[in-house]
Amino acid sequence: MATKILSVDDSRTIRLIVGKAFKPYDCIVLEASNGEEGLVVAAREKPDLIVLDVTMPVMDGVTMLTKLKEDPALKAIPVIMLTAESGRENVLQIARLGVRDYLVKPFKEDQLVEKAGRCVTLAKRPVATPA
User: Fold this and answer.
1) Fewest beta carbons within 10 Å, which of 38, 61, 89, 105?
2) What are the sequence ranges of the domains in the chain?
């Protein structure tokens, strides 16, 4: 069964990069453009992993993470935060909220895959064999 990954970021480019990073793996990448949408998709789809931006309109990532951790049905989902700010205070704040890991933007696809692989099982996509 494919691993479900939810990418929540207001940048379409970042969501495309996240999707591209997991192309070689047996994953379904779901998308949301803000925390409010992210919560709806998370509740409906129950992803195995959430890749969550910090700074977004409507609802930011910290607020979404707080709401995730308050929901008994969603609180066990591992979260990797994406942040443009690498400041110690910022990192400590998101760590206290219970994120599994974080990445500072800009990031490399292989860094994301490596961190995701520590949270969920990433199986290589089966190679189609000619009939």
Assistant:
1) 89
2) 3-117
